[in-house]
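Predict fold of DUF4267 domain-containing protein; 126 aa.
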Amino acid sequence: MSRDEWDVTRKTVGSLSMWIGSAALFAPRWIAGALGVRPDAARGDVALPLLVRLAAARNIAMGAALLVTPPPQARRTTEVALLLTALDAAAVWTSRATGDVRPRSAVLSGIVLAVASYGTARWHRR
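Predicted 3D structure, encoded as tokens:
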């Protein structure tokens, strides 16, 4: 991946992460519902907004880190982002196994993890 390709990728992923994090920060129940949390849980769970906002803050922080990290240090940032994405996917898949989230959440988590893994592997092959 050339330096220009990395620059475009890091800015795109960083900006997207910050936008999604911001939406989740201000509308946690809507985001949870859109991502497949059961409607009754999205409406009634008192802990849900806090948990979604914590994940949103992490997304915003990781997005900001990607936007300001120069290429040599970006390896560590992408590794941390991949680890967090894998943990998120594991949490969603565990919730799916207990019936707390819809199948689309598990599929979406798998797609996000696959894309993050591909991007990290591509970046590390440089």
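Residues 71-97 form the longest helix (27 residues).
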